[in-house]
Amino acid sequence: MTASVLALDWGNYWQQSIFRVLGAAIFVILGAGTFVIAFLFKMMSYMQSRLGPMEAGPHGTLQLVAEVGKWLQKEDLVPDRADAKLFKLAPYIVLASTFLLAVVMPFGPDAYFVNVDTGIFLALGLSSISVLGILVAGWASANKYSLIGGLRAAGQLIAYELPMVLAVVGVVIQAGTLNLQGIVAAQHEGDIFGWGGIGNPFILTQLVGFVVFMVATQAELAQTPFDMPVAESEIVTGYMTEYSGMRFLLFFIGEFATAAVFAALASTLFLGGWAVPFVDLDENAMNVVGPIVLLVKMMIVGTLIFWARFTFPRFREDQLQSFAWKALIPISLVNILATMVLKVAF
Amino acid sequence: MTLLTDAQQLAFANAQAADGRVNVELETDDGMTLNMGPQHPATHGTLRLIARLDGEQVVSADVACGYMHRGYEKLCEVRSYPQVTTLVNRIDWLGSFANEVPFILAAEQLMEIEAPDRAKWIRTILFEMSRLANISLFIGDLALQLGAQTPAFLAFRDREFVLNQIESVTGGRFHPNFDRIGGLKDDLPKGWLADTKAAMVRIREFCDLMDDLVYGNEIFQMRMRGIGIVPAQTALSYGLSGANLRGSGVDWDLRRDANIGLAYDQVDWKVWTHPDGDCFSRSWVRLQEVREATKIIDQLCDSLPGGAIMAKVPRIIKVPEGEAYIATENPLGEMGYYVVSKGDTGPFRVKIRTASFNNISIVPWLLKGVYVPDIIAILGSLYFILGDIDR
Amino acid sequence: MPRPTPKLPLKGLFVGLKATMGIFLKTMFPKRGIKTLLPAPTIGAVTVQYPHKSPPEMPAPRARGVIALKSENCTVCMLCARSCPDWCIYIEGHKTKAPPRRPGGKERTVSALDRFDIDYALCMYCGICVEVCPFEALFWSPEFEYSEPRLADLLHDEARLNEWMETVPEFEPYEAGSTAKVKKVPR
Predict the structure, then answer these.
(1) What mean pLDDT, rounded, does chain A reach?
(2) Chain A closest CA to C183's CA: distance in Å?
(3) Is the Cα dihedral A334, A340, A343, A345 positive or negative?
(4) Residue A190: helix, strand or coil by DSSP?
(5) Which pLDDT score is estimated for B102?
(6) What pLDDT is attached to residue B128?
(7) What is the pLDDT of residue A4?
(8) Using an 8 Å Cβ cutoff, are B49 and B323 in contact?
């Protein structure tokens, strides 16, 4: 971090690293908490004509505190025939991928944890680590339901990585850079076919890419209609069946934290990130306004994700796979072709 | 153990052996055995399904029911007729008035009593209302098992209107205990007919909402069309009944063909069938039955005759000797009571023929070669209630 | 006829999305008129925050909540205890002699109630006891808030059962066309 940010002295490398770790932790946990309260407790409840948790805190806003307390005080169970080391390791692998993804996210012109040149490439690579964690959880649980869930997850998550990457390729072609700050700058300062009024938010010029990315994100997060790995009515909770107490809490937080981080990624790639079209504030002010703007955009994207989740039934595993390979990948390839042609022509 | 007779010891050993055959271990040669055991979110209660899987495909499946056996037929032997009426409410607990009707009709046949017209009309109205309560939950639950969480809550929300109506006349939402030999326990309170017609409007809106959210949804159709096809002949030979039969194209409805003691011949209604025979057609037929039930109730409310609610019956009812079997078109299918009376205040023997017990007999045949998610779709569309299977 | 498959393979999905968002908005913004944009989910939701609030339509008057006893009418005939499917009514009584109706007559034998308990832990709320009582001593009341922390406290004795009489509502008038007579609750 440059020393000009908010005129604070961030110290040497080790002190900065501690700040980075704390900052990432806060972002992940707050993001997960916000998403859980806003979408799982309240939006889902209002869609079902009911109010959701109301007792803990005003209108149930402290329900998460109650839930965390509840999960923490539960018995620490490891099934008898489970591979204990792998069983205990799995939630941490899934969470590690989420934390690492949060680290590459830009929040403002100078408010970021790391600014790598291969930003989006790194982010997409990091998001694949969670597949390993789920597979490990499914195998190490010594439970047939978990095994089925883990295998389904592996097939699904690997299949939907491709449409996600291909959708992002369109964005990269338009922005001209893999760097996430560069992508935000390209949207803020770009123009649509020569008109620079509101910049070039890629949701307008890459609409097909946006739709493909959102569908692929839904599948990466294992949310309905792609929640075969956690098909609650068939295989109890899939790979999470044998987990209870703190470990289940880690999976639960991981699921929503990953949703928050992917929403932030989608806002950065398609909605303009921390930048607002006509607003060009001074740097320090933007470092404070930027995260708030990003939060608003995250909530918009989250609304789309969870709206679909609460409305649709789930696909069967083979329908899911054929949808990815036969529908999404061809569409995203055509999208890349069209983007290339238009980029060169205009 | 030593005090048991030889026959009892033999029976015990046989039961252990049968249990051992059913319990197979984790490691099997040809595929994995998945025990969708008595505790499972998807089987409507304590049903146990033992499926041999090859990857995600089912090689063979076995159904083990009986985890909820409550000994109804034995209980009925030592109870009087009003007490049995109370008990049988709890066989199919979602459409509970429907359980009382065939039993009371059988007793009335033995006593050679006919209920007055007003009682017949109201009996039919409550019978159709139990169908509404039962099947609206089915639709919500089917969507829940396929992954959509919202329709289940909406089903519960809109079902309340029907349950409130049942409560305002019988006093109980789930266990009405309202049918009596010779008529009904009490008459309708003031304003009930108008409230019921308002409730029917809400149920019709619910059906339209389910059409939008569930039946029109392409993902739902992809999960349900072409899955679990039951040809009409197979359905008949396995003894399926109710919407399972009509979903395979068989035009069979006891309300029209064998109407005893209810007012279906006074109403203009139609029987819905669907030619496909897959999961979608069975669920679709049930949705149309709900719509049809609202129309039947509307017509019955309009044409309700005046008069007494109970025929002349003695205070202490002793049913003369004889046997009677009456079956009706319950929400789950065909439910019948075979009542044997020896002239007492209670039945000598009651044999209960329930729809779900026969409906799940087709499950092993139907589950060969389907995927694991399809198991849920098939079980959901066959629609059974454990209390109905196990009694 | 079955609804025809929508032409566009995505139309059903969008219709479903519109339906859920419609319910969401109706729950969130139920007020009409100028106040529409004020979020008021506690009014829009169909659920009621019991026990902080009571539902607007409390249980119907006929709802089977608790059984009330009018001891003065009870003649200890034991019909209710005999007809209960669960045998949850415990009755004990004795016979006493009451003075003759007019001087010089015979003394009358009157039954007096010693104990009348209903065990609500066993009761299945079927109503057979209320129905068979020939002397109008048992009545249904829609009162349901009598849960206890201890199972033994669910055995209501005669005094408590008499207290429930205050909560028994009057019998409702019948629908048009009925020939049944509305009974009166003895107070």
Answers:
(1) 85
(2) 40
(3) negative
(4) coil
(5) 93
(6) 94
(7) 44
(8) no
Instruction: Give the nearest partner residue to A314 out of B32, B147, B374, using CB atoms.
Output: B147
Indicate the residue of C17, C21, C47 with minimum beta-carbon distance to A51.
Answer: C47
pLDDT at C56: 72
What mean pLDDT comes out for the span C40-53? 81
Written as six digits, the tokens of A204 are 């307008």
Judge whether C168 and C139 are in contact, CB under 8 Å: yes
Structure tokens that stand for A309 in this block: 């989740």
pTM of the full predicted structure?
Answer: 0.87
**Structure token pair of residue C50:** 């019991």
C57, C83, C127 member nearest B177 (Cβ): C127
d(CA B185, CA B200): 24
Q: Please state whether beta strands B48-54 and B333-341 pair in parallel, antiparallel, or not at all (unpaired).
A: unpaired
Please say whether the dihedral angle defined by the alpha carbons of residues A271, A272, A275 and A280, taken in this order, is positive or negative.
negative
Q: Could you please report the per-residue DSSP string of B180-200? A: ETTEESS-PBTTHHHHHHHHH
Which region holds residue B138: left if phi is over 0, alpha if psi is between -120 and 50, else beta?
alpha
pLDDT digits (tens, 9 = 90+) for B182-221: 899 989 998 899 999 999 999 999 999 999 889 988 888 8
Cβ distance of C60 and B171 shorter than 8 Å: yes
Q: List the structure tokens of A242.
A: 């044998």
For the stretch A204-218, pLDDT in tens is 888 889 999 999 999
Tens digit of each residue's pLDDT (9 = 90 or more) over C68-88: 999 999 989 999 999 998 899
The verdict on B274 touching C (C-beta cutoff 8 Å) is yes
Residues contacting A121, CB < 8 A, separation 6+: A178
B266 CB-contact burial (10 Å; exposed 0-12 / middle 13-18 / buried 19+): middle
ipTM of the complex: 0.85
Query: Is the pLDDT higher at B264 or at A188?
Result: B264
Return the ∠ at Cα C125 (arms to C119 and C126), rounded to 5°. 125
Tokens of B50: 């033992």
Measure the N-to-C terminal CA separation of chain A; round to a whole number of Å. Answer: 37
Distance (Å) from the C-alpha of residue A44 to the closest C-alpha of chain B? 8
The structure tokens 């087709």 sit at B362
